[in-house]
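hiii so um. not sure if this is the right channel but i have a protein structure encoded as tokens and i wanna go backwards to a sequence. like what aa goes where. can anyone help
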């Protein structure tokens, strides 16, 4: 994707990309989703209770309790899906593949998938033996108008309003760094450089870039969520209802502590006298009134059970809508393997859909590096270990020993030691058949 060679026009192009991206719906939706993911419900935070004054005007209610509580279910379900699929890391047929992707590749995959679930898309920048996460809030992708493939992009960041704005324009033939200080025009910080740089070091000149080359394809690979949508899309209203209901329940309980005093036959009292009577009741808890007067305390009744049931219905609906695992369904008693598997089915189905996109992303990363391999995943299940192991062992000779060993280690959470255990078993078998029998004494 050509953006021109005139440096002034290239700078204007970068500035236009940043401005347009910050004003896009994708960017604003990502800001909102990140707030929900962090447990900050922007709907209830911005919600203001209103009441009518004596003249019928709507004014903010600054007297009633106004607790604003978020349940954090959204962030929990996003993390649950990401870790269910990738919590045990990514495996490859060739051991060398993982080394070429960097030692933090498993964590980076979780970070990129979490950002994609939250913001509908995230990106992995492949360079110098590592993969770096780019989120929607820092990277503007530029797609080819004919193929929709990403062939360029601008990453930008600014630590604070009084700090310089930094930007990097990534193209297929290299990348260029820009900087814009306060009150100054944007300028080139580093001229365009190739992605793969050959550095020569000497005592006289220090480190110098003497040569370089680029990757066969654009080294920034997108990972899209299913349907290219955020997990918040279509579920925000349900989370809002849950948080508003919980906040309302707490507010109602708080309001229930208020005692209202009704003073009969007090029509002739002015407001200062009423205030003085209330102050006397609060401080001395007793008051002297005429025989025809009457003072009665009243407290509002809070419909706690109805609110509690409504909260439980909303909680179940949240898990149903986002196809999450509700551990309460398998927490009571010793759940069988069948019950556990049934509880996992919604999450499994959703993970199957997401797995296609994750595999496509990893294929894109491998393609940049020129690696031919296939990723596999081990999902994180809660299992009835004893029942699962008995099922595997009871298979007898129908399954290879190596397969059964791997499945048992997977149940025990030691799948990463499978090669080591299999090697020990092979050595034991070899010793069993090669050890010469002791000669019997005649």
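sure thing!! here u go:
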């Amino acid at each position: 994707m050509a953006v021109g060679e005139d440096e002034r026009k290239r700078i204007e192009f970068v500035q236009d990309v940043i401005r347009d991206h910050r004003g896009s719906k994708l960017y604003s939706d990502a800001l909102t989703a990140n707030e929900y993911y962090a447990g900050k419900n922007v709907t209830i935070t911005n919600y203001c209770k209103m009441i009518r004054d004596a003249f019928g005007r709507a004014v903010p209610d600054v007297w009633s309790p106004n607790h604003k509580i978020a349940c954090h279910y959204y962030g929990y379900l996003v993390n649950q899906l990401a870790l269910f699929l990738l919590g045990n890391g990514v495996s490859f047929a060739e051991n060398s593949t993982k080394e070429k992707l960097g030692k933090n590749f498993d964590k980076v995959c979780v970070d990129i998938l979490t950002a994609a679930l939250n913001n509908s898309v995230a990106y992995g920048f492949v360079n110098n033996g590592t993969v770096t996460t780019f989120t929607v809030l820092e990277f503007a992708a530029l797609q080819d108008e004919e193929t929709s493939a990403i062939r360029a992009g601008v990453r930008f960041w600014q630590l604070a309003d009084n700090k310089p704005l930094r930007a990097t324009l990534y193209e297929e033939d290299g990348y260029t760094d820009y900087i814009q200080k306060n009150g100054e025009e944007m300028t080139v910080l580093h001229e365009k450089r190739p992605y793969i740089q050959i550095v020569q070091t000497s005592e006289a000149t220090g480190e110098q870039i003497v040569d370089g080359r680029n990757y066969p394809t654009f080294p920034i690979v997108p990972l899209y969520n299913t349907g290219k949508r955020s997990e918040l899309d279509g579920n925000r209203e349900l989370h809002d209802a849950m948080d508003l209901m919980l906040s309302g329940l707490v507010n109602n309980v708080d309001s229930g502590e208020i005692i209202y005093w009704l003073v009969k036959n007090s029509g002739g009292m002015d407001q200062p006298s009423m205030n003085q009577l209330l102050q006397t009741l609060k401080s001395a808890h007793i008051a002297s009134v005429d025989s025809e007067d009457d003072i009665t305390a009243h407290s509002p009744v809070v419909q706690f059970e109805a609110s509690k049931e409504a909260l439980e219905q909303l909680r179940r609906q949240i898990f149903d809508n986002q196809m999450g695992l509700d551990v309460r369904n398998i927490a009571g008693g010793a759940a069988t393997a069948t019950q556990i598997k049934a509880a996992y089915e919604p999450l499994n189905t959703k993970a199957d859909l997401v797995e296609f996109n994750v595999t496509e992303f990893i294929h894109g990363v491998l393609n940049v590096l020129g690696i031919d391999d296939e990723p596999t995943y081990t999902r994180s299940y809660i299992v009835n270990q004893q029942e699962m192991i008995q099922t595997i062992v009871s298979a007898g000779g129908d399954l290879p020993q190596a397969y059964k060993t791997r499945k048992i280690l997977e149940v025990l959470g030691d799948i990463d030691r499978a090669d080591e255990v299999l090697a020990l078993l092979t050595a034991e078998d070899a010793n069993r058949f090669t050890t010469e029998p002791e000669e019997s004494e005649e």
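oh and The chain has a mean pLDDT of 82.
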